[in-house]
Amino acid sequence: MPKNVAIGVGLMEFPFSAAAAYWRWVDLCEAGGIDSIWQTDRLVGPQPFLECMSVMAALAGRTKRIKFGVNVLSLAMRDAVLVARQCATIDYLSNGRLLPAFGIGSPLGPEWTTLNLDTKTRGRKTDEGLEVIRRLWSEDKVDFEGVHYHLSGATISPKPVQPDLPMWIGGSSEAAIRRTARIGTGWQAGPETPEQAAKVVAAIKAAAAEEGRTIDDDHYGAGIPYRFGSPDDPALGPLFDAYKKRTGRDPKDYFAIGDAAAIVQRVAEYVEAGVSKFILRPAAKGDDEMMAQTRRLIEEVLPLVAARWPKPAKRAAVRTAAE
Hints:
This protein is of the alpha/beta class. Helix content is 41%, strand content 17%. Strands 1, 2, 3, 4, 5, 6, 9, 10, 11, 12 and 13 form an 11-stranded parallel sheet that branches. Strands 7-8 form a two-stranded antiparallel sheet. Helix 7 links the parallel strand 10 and strand 11. Helix 3 (80-93) crosses helix 5 (122-138). The longest helix has 22 residues, at 287-308.
């Protein structure tokens, strides 16, 4: 069972009044011991929504400790060579704090129709793009001949600081499971319940074994909307409605709502399913609510998580001759 449980936070739509409020929230996360910050990907839409790669670059400059990632980047909507370069640059400038995660994008997203993109090719284009990115991160010259990408002697420099820059994969379809097993270094759940996540984790491990690969037990993640309060809180109504419309599922099976113990219990259900990395998204709107919900997460949930799943002891440093 995974023991190295880490709690990050994430955003979908932009819930703040202005950039200054967003940066106050980032500073709170950085100072409060949050493991990572995640931004959902969206290219077009009427709601305020930050562009994910721009956010990663901005976080690299604003913060010193916290890690950050995209949950998850829709690779079929982008050029893989540019994404490879962006990730390498951000990882380099942040001294190895980027956590890239990729998927094919939901077919219900507005981008496909608005930008006249073909949903039927998104799986194949993503697979080719992942291969291109992986090779550009590690090889000096890349030749690639595919349906969507044709490269001749392509190279990027500087390379990522992390010698094995993570490549987390999202999605729970059979194709996504195979994609994770074949090329991924981790898996990031979407709206899966703990029971559903357990089945996907088992399937990925079996498929990885068939590929002659293993994925670290600590490299399975889940995203959970949370809120301190009651399920009857009127503020949750619009959030529940939006989730039900987007997924067709009952939000009460997915959201973690209650006190700190209730939120940690939901985390524990995912840990039992084989998940250890978490993106908790505050179910909140407005500057004050976002700050209050995040502060309570830091002050009430993080200590309970640390006590229940202590970090593995680090190996003692080797003494130098001068000591």
